Amino acid sequence: MLGKFRGALWVLSVEVGYCKKLAFDKLILFSTGLKLNVCKGPDRNKTCTQNDQKVSYAIPLEIIYLTPLNNWNPHNLTYKGDERLDHGKTVTADGRNGGKTKTKAYDGVNSKIYYITPNRFFTGNETNVDAADTTKDLVGVLDPTGEVRQVRASGVRIFLPDIPGVGILRQRYPIMPIHVEGSTAWKEIQAVGDFLMESKKHANLFRDPLSGQDGGQYPPEVNTDTDLRTGSSTNLTKVGRHRHEVILDKDEVTIIKSGGNVTVVTTENSGHQHTVTIKWHKKKGFYMALCDSTEITRPFAVKCWDKHSARMAAVPNE
Ligand SMILES: [Zn+2]
Asked: CA dist 307 to 58, 229, 267, 275, 303, Å?
């Protein structure tokens, strides 16, 4: 048995043959006098104190299945030890940040920057990445011959990225049940959470409609025929302030929201109309990508000869 203090967690590994090497973290130790070695400092110069743990019961909270990936180093990347020591620091020296060029790739790996698994071993990206996860998806590391190798992180994850022919494997499993999972109250709380955090997505379920920009309503998640209004014209030397409207049918809305674009002619206002190409921005919604022109400009720059602002608001259909 091996006890280690890592971050905020007690980690206790129990070795039962290779494949059953399990790690229990957040474990309340079960022993009447288990001795734990707590070591601090770099490997070469660490100070250890031995703690006696005396507790009466143990509840394993999580199983972590370890794999040979932690040690598999087919590119022979050099491990330079503790990130805080001079040798370890050379990994990121001169602004090296894991880029794909010879000047930006990490120069070997260290205790913190531990990327040795060849990128080709996985297909697809990291799954289930959460905010506390600081792992980069893919980095460049110099091998001993000075070649840049594209590698992925080699530490423990909840899910490994997809391995061709194998699939997505899970490494970490909670043992303790989330005991309220499945109860009605739990589901209600989850639903309210979704409502709060994704209110735009669920706008069509609210009893009172939500207000969006310009007093318009957010378009409901189910795509329907939608009337859009351009922003006001801002070039007032040529024509008075005005807007135009366009009518999109639900198929056009679907095309736009799935990343395509639709070109339509607006209503006539102030004696003219425009031919506009409409696209969708995840946060800002509908906007005019082009107006009377095929010249591509910044997405939200003013558009058309009379300089309408590009963002388009849905017109409430009442
Ligand atoms: Zn106009």
From this structure: 69, 14, 16, 13, 5
DSSP-assigned beta bridge partners for residue 303: 308
Contact, 64 vs 6, CB < 8 A? no
Is the CB of residue 70 less than 8 Å from the CB of residue 155?
yes
- Tens digit of each residue's pLDDT (9 = 90 or more) over 261-290: 899 999 888 889 999 999 999 888 899 999
Non-local (6+) Cβ contacts of 73 within 8 A are: 79, 116
Residues in the chain: 318
Give the 3-state secondary structure of residue 107. coil
Closest CA to 26 of 9, 1, 5, 50: 9
Question: Which residue's entry shows tokens 């990121």?
Answer: 92
Which of these, 168, 112, 118, lies nearest to 143 by C-alpha position? 118
pTM over 0.85: no
245 CA distance to ligand 1 middle (Å): 10
Calpha distance 70→157 (Å, rounded): 11
**What distance in Å separates the CA atoms of residue 189 and residue 289, rounded to the nearest whole number?**
40
306 C-alpha to ligand 1 centroid (Å): 6
Q: Quote the CA–CA distance of 58 and 176 in Å, as a whole number.
A: 12
Amino acid (1-letter code) at residue 85: L
Helix (H) or strand (E) holding 32: strand 31-40
Ligand 1 centroid to 305 CA: how many Å? 8
Distance 105 CA to ligand 1 centre (A): 51
Give bridge partners of residue 217 from the DSSP assignment. Answer: 211
Cα distance between residue 222 and residue 245, in whole Å: 21
pLDDT in tens, 11-70: 444 444 343 344 444 444 444 456 677 777 777 777 888 777 666 666 667 788 888 888
Cα 43 from Cα 96, distance rounded (Å): 24
Ligand 1 centroid to Cα of residue 224, in Å, is: 26
